[in-house]
Design goal:
The chain has 385 residues and is an alpha/beta fold. It folds into two domains: 133 residues, Aspartate Aminotransferase, domain 1 (Alpha-Beta Complex), CATH 3.90.1150.10; 238 residues, Aspartate Aminotransferase, domain 2. Helices cover 43% and strands 14% of the residues. It is globular, with a radius of gyration of 21 Å.
Length: 385
Amino acid sequence: MNRIYLDNAATTPLAPEVLEAMMPYLTTQYGNASSIYATGRDARQAVDRARRQMAHLIGCKPGEIYFTSGGTESDNWALKGIALANRNKGNHIITSAIEHPAVLETARWLETQGFEVSYLPVDASGILSPAAVQEAITEKTILISIMAANNEIGTLQPISAIGEIARARNIPFHTDAVQAMGAVPVNVDDWQVDLLSLSGHKFHGPKGTGALYVRSGTRIEPLLHGGAQERSRRAGTENVAGIVGLGMAAERAGIELHKSAARITQLRNRLIDGIIAQIPQVHLNGDRVCRLPNNANLSFRFIEGEALLLHLDLNGIAASSGSACASGSLEPSHVLLATGLDAENAHSSIRFTLSESTTATEIDAVLGLLPGIVEKLRAMSPLAS
């Protein structure tokens, strides 16, 4: 059976050229980048090259890139680091109700440390109003953290407009850009962000790699203490092979983005339009246009999303019921509930996410199988009677 992989928001396959770039640092070039002898210097040069590659992709200086273990660490560092560095100025943080758990759980932890957090609502499409951010700001606001693109419904937020508000009030602005990287153009100056989180395995890089962009002059406390790595801001021996892979993934993302975004968008629309045309009682979650090129999240009324996923898997199709980070939870998606969906329809939702390797043949195969699966499940469902 030829399997069809449509869960690229959870993780993407490692690109061949990324693996090729990593291999020497997994084998013969095993030096510690903090060592001063030749093998260590070679490793340091590789890390510096990756830093330049990453900086080029998002339009910043190499010295503003700090390598981490992934998006979760970067989000934790951004929120905790800014909060602790600025608690003498205030204790108020603004975020949205649909952030990734790496932001929401960190914000909740900060509440136990005496910080106050405003969780702003979104509209039915999952979009946050910049005016709501403006209204939420107080004299004690020390951080605004709004994700660039939602990991479940793919909604793109008006980051530039929010960044303009934050800049005018001189408030540090962080964005979780984990899903946006490699999918839409990302530029820290266009967005007017001071901190930006990213994760390598979301754009064909290795798992366990990521980075936090920190604009020069931004006050931030370290999350990890120990050695002097990453200019004494992020302790720990550098994951040289992973960092090299992240750098190569960033380089290829800058090339592939413009080549593939239009094609992926076309395939996504083909999938959405085909499902809605063939299957009744289907609702598209998120904005129809203002969404990631590869994201299609739909609710199939009267059936359980998990049951639909299992049937798709039996037919060789990999999709998701939402965030992979929350797959063990029995609770309905907090993102879908925030858009006004009830619990029943939230539980009936499926997320299909495409990649540059997705083909029209694969999309047509899904469209050929899905209606029959839905019809079968609805025939067994007491909710549909």
